Amino acid sequence: MSDQPDFSHLLKQIQKKYDAESEDTENYLEGLLYSKSITYWDYIHTDALLSLQIQRTTFPDEMVFITYHQINELLFKMILWEISQVAENDDLNVTFFKEKLMRISRYFDMLTTSFNIMREGIDRKQYSKFRHTLTPASGFQSGQYRKIEFASTELINLIDNRFRVTIDRNTPFEHAFNHLYWQAAGKDYKTGEKSKLLINFEKRYKEEFITFMKVYNTKNLWSRFKELPKKDQQDKSLTEAMRHYDYTVNITWVIAHYNAAKYYILGEGGGGEATGGSDWQKYMHPKYQKRIFFPELWSQKEIDNWGTNV
Questions:
Q1: pLDDT for the residue numbered 272
Q2: Of 65, 205, 215, 64, residue with least CA distance to 144
Q3: Is there a contact between 112 and 79 (Cβ–Cβ < 8 Å)?
Q4: Cβ within 8 Å of residue 236, ≥6 positions away
Q5: Is the dihedral of CA 113, 116, 119, 123 positive or negative?
């Protein structure tokens, strides 16, 4: 009948697609006859997602705490997804680079403002009690966040300030790993002995981290930026996006996290010590370690005052 839609052009495209993959088009078309239509809850896996919030105590606000951190991890996954597109792009240009940086920055803006959920949405008395069941776990142990750092900058910029002069590109990755800035948060300053926090973290992630460090050694955001033509490196909109990302991650977000921790740990009922036992104030505050992803985009005065005016 002439009023029936003509799908021949689509069928030809489908045929072309599967021919290119040496697949049998008829099998795929027949499969459509038996497949179920998709639903929102099947696509998002809602039931599985909502089954992951498992409390260790009976305090109601522990549910907020767990869910909040799981949302953070989902956002970290989105950030790593955007960074990987820059890392793997064979035809990188200013527009694409800037677009991805601003996407990532918006994710971190969400993370920054979301700390009000913690500050205003969790009863401090409840937290001061259920937090003891989390020992020796800590947000320090977010593997995805460490990967974001590795994927953002050259490894030297993540080394503890005290050891940077002794480490260069020829340094073995394992040696560099043992001198990363966050290692100091899990070691006794006098004996060098590692805390249970750090031991558990390394047992779970060390080999994975070292592999990731090798992969991103030459294709992190800072390295990819320096591969661009000099003219593109001087593009004002791109350098502003780079600086915005650097400041957002290493000052704005960190300070929001620091202030939330200070509110709960040092506030009424807080013991003053993180659940993982780290020297969290010196580890977290940006003015101590001066974590800067793109140091050459900042003046010496800005670096000297990093994190001191917030």
A1: 53
A2: 205
A3: no
A4: none
A5: negative
Rounded to whole angstroms, how far apart are CA atoms 255 and 116? 13
pLDDT average per 10 residues of sequence, the chain (310 residues): 80 94 93 92 97 96 95 97 98 97 94 86 90 87 96 94 84 91 80 88 96 96 97 97 96 88 64 52 76 96 89
The pLDDT assigned to 269 comes to 45
C-alpha 215/C-alpha 259 separation (Å) is 34
The residue type of 288 is Y
C-alpha span between 155 and 214 (Å, rounded): 10
Q: What is the DSSP string of 54-84?
A: --SSS-THHHHHHHHHHHHHHHHHHHHHHHH
The answer to whether domain 61-304 has CATH 3.30.420 is no
**H helices present in 221-299, as ranges:** 221-227, 230-233, 236-247, 254-265, 280-284, 286-289
Q: So where are the chain's domains? A: 61-304
What per-residue confidence (pLDDT) applies to 120?
A: 85
CB burial of 242-255 (b: ≥16 within 10 Å; e: otherwise) equals bbbbbbbbbbbbbb
Contact assessment for residue 76 and residue 144, using Cβ atoms and an 8 Å cutoff? yes
